Amino acid sequence: MKIIPENNPNYALQLATERKKNFTSWLLTAPALLWLIFFFLIPYLIVIIYSFLTADIYDVKFEFTLEAYRQCLTPAYLHTLFLSFRLALLTTLLCLLLGFPVAYYIARAKDKVKNTLLIFIIIPFWTNLIIRIFSWRIFLAYNGVLNNILLNLGLISQPLEIMRTDIAVILVMVYVYLPYMILPLYSVLEKLDWTLLNAAMDLGANEIISFFKITLPLARGGIFAGGLLVFIPALGSYLIPQLVGNQKSLYLGQVITYKVKNIPRNWPMASALSLILLLIVALFLIMFYVLYSHSKSRRRV
Amino acid sequence: MEEIRLENLSKDFDGFVAVENVSLSIQSGELFSFLGPSGCGKTTLLRMIAGFEIPSTGRILIGNTDITDLPPYKRQVNTIFQNYSLFPHMTVFDNVAFGLRIRKFPKNEINDRVKEMLTLVKMEDQANKYPDQISGGQKQRIAIARALINKPKVLLLDEPLAALDLKLRQHMLIELMNIHDAVGITFIYVTHDQSEAMSISDRVAVMNYGHIIQSGPPDDIYERPTSVFSAYFIGATNLITGEVIGIEDDYVQIRCPDGTGNSFEIDSTFHFQPAIGQELTISLRPEKIAISRNKPRYQEDINILRGVIEDILYLGSHTQYIVRVGDLRIRVFSQHKRVYFDDTALDWEEPVWLFWHDTDTWLIDEIPENVLTADELSEGGINHFQRSLKRPTAQ
Q1: How many Cβ contacts (< 8 angstroms) between chains A and B?
Q2: Alpha carbons A148 and B26: distance in angstroms, whole number
């Protein structure tokens, strides 16, 4: 109902309440807003400015140039981009392949079992990431646990060199990011109406066809969410390649760090690479969004 | 013709017996209902016919084919699920086409048959909508079309109208009957709603605790219940227990205690041979009893009881009276006839006469306490006769 001001003696009071409401909501969002402005927006503006400056040994010279971007587009750095991209894609796909059956199984388990299994998925988060990565180093090392077991079982005659390879990187990446894939998948599969699968089978579809025609399309939301949660951090990952990878194939995160850490420093290139990473992530977000809304959009027969 | 036969069918869920030793044959083209309270095993039975549950023992045959162990997708049986289970990510058209697409029918044929089906269920102009854009009744129609397009030998309906409101339910019931007549295949209908089952079925099987209590045409079950449970579950009835004290050629005399230490006598025709001294149950439908404040003229084949009105429920087409006879409460339906010897309305606490013909009672060779649970015995106090002798204690 629309209130006509002159007929309503409470109009002034209402206006005041409205204003108060507005003020309250501003007050409530202010901390987060200020936080974002000071620690996200302003730093990014600095990064953008720095990417257009000239590199010096320790610092930058305030002279405008596009040199940083030109260097970023040379084959060496494009190769780094390609490696990071490949790593992120592989990690995402492997997480999806490994995570889907797990999420499916948990979603279909009895309530009691379900909660226990979910706790098992979450337990690794209780241990610091670095400690977990170092455990992997011990496990995969030349004289490590894995090689010892395989040697003792007589499956190999000399230790495998897994540590410091791309395989080790992917292995640990999948291990770390798997829960981020499982949890969103679980949340959509848990809401899936299982009688739909009964209905599909009733209409002549066997288990495999039912999976591809019903389960998979309806789990789409979880696949997209999990994919983003894994792909985006994987693209810029630094810690894992640094700790279990080698120095021959450097990933984007590592290169950015080196540009800042190693002397001569190159702040503009580090900034430019960060922005390129941001751009790729943004592009991917848009692409995912378009794909997702397209697959959701109403088809016309 | 291919009938469906259930032979000694049982289903055991980790020690809980959902269905026990059910044998039945359903004729081709029949509309057969399983009727019973929730948990009676009717849905489990349906799921076994559909193939979602594998029977613990027994066989299911369609014609001469044993389908007991076939997976659902290899049976010529389709199901209408309780919540319709339409695929939310597909249009109405794609939902209906699903079965044919799985079987890789040519595109033209799919188009033609889907259109034909949508016309049958009067949904031809909704083909491009998604399930969340149509109403409950429309979803129901699509579920029917999606099942029937596969030309099943049997259509299973699991409480198909439970989610609809009353008006729509009555409407869909008639449509279901029309569709059944149009396609001529066997329908197996599962419901807990006795009026649904009674109105559309050729035959009904009343189930309780995994057993079929009685099966037959609806009027047979209503008029001639063979057990206390079917008398209690189908329609409203008064269940009165008593002892046989005399047997003549065509009627028995039964002495019924009224709970206060007194007793009254009921004469009844019978269809099984009772013995003197036997305890049995009389089922007396509320609509068969006449109620009046004037004493009826004595006739040999009329039972007459004196009671006091305890409760009056106006229900539009008829009024329900609860009449106290001793400690017993007897339910009476009286229609609002305009021309009647009692013109002024009956009132609370008014003494009345109840009377009915000897042939309107029906004898059952069972005692309610042995058959019904305490809850069922005391349910609402008016749903059926409440025995005051052994009134179930509150738990």
Answers
A1: 67
A2: 68
Q: Is A228 on the interface with B (CB under 8 A)?
A: no
Task: Please state, in angstroms and rounded to a whole number, the distance separating the CA atoms of residues B216 and B66.
Answer: 25
Helix (H, G, I), strand (E, B) or coil at B93: helix
CATH of the domain at A111: 1.10.3720.10
Superfamily for the B4-223 domain: P-loop containing nucleotide triphosphate hydrolases (3.40.50.300)
Q: Which residue of B has its CA nearest to A197?
A: B85
Helices (H), chain B: 42-50, 92-102, 107-120, 136-148, 166-183, 194-200, 218-223, 228-233, 368-371, 374-378
Local structure of residue A10 (DSSP, 8 states): T
Tokens of B25: 């044959």
Q: What is the pLDDT of residue A205?
A: 94
Instruction: Quote the CA–CA distance of B281 and B254 in Å, as a whole number.
Output: 10
- Mean pLDDT, to the nearest integer, of A180-201? 94
Return the beta strands (E) in A197-248 as ranges. Answer: none
Total count of domains within chain A? 1
Does the fold of domain B228-378 match that of domain B4-223? no
**Which residues from chain A sit within 8 angstroms of residue B128, using beta carbons?**
300-301
Residue A217 phi/psi, 5-degree rounding, is -60, -35
pLDDT (0 to 100) of residue A20: 81
Q: Do A204 and B93 touch (CB under 8 A)?
A: no
- Is the bond leading into B106 cis (omega within 30 degrees of zero)? no
Check residue A294 and give its pLDDT.
75
- The minimum CA-CA distance between A101 and chain B, rounded to whole Å, is 22
Contact between B46 and B102 (Cβ < 8 Å): no
- Chain A residues within an 8 Å CB radius of B72: 198, 201-202
- Residues 27 to 56 of A: which have CB under 8 A from any B CB? none
Cα B142-B144-B148 angle, rounded to 5 deg: 120
Mean pLDDT of A21-25: 85
The closest alpha carbon to B216, from B5, B26, B63, belongs to B26
Residues of A in contact with B146 (CB under 8 A): 203
Judged by CB atoms closer than 8 Å, whether chains meet at B93 and A301 is answered as yes
Model pLDDT for residues B340-355, shown as the tens digit of each residue: 555 567 888 999 999 9
Q: Give the pLDDT of residue A19.
A: 81
Q: Do B52 and A193 touch (CB under 8 A)?
A: no
pLDDT of residue A8 exceeding 70, the answer is no
Taking contacts as CB-CB distances below 8 angstroms, the residues of chain B near A209 are 102
Q: Which residues of chain B have pLDDT under 70?
A: 1, 337-344, 377-395
Percentage of chain A lying above the pLDDT 70 cut: 95
Q: Is A89 on the interface with B (CB under 8 A)?
A: no
| The length of chain B, given as a count of residues | 395
Residue A4 has pLDDT above 60, yes or no: no
Is B228-378 a CATH 1.20.1300.10 domain?
Answer: no
pLDDT in tens, A75-118: 999 999 999 999 999 999 999 999 999 999 999 999 999 999 99
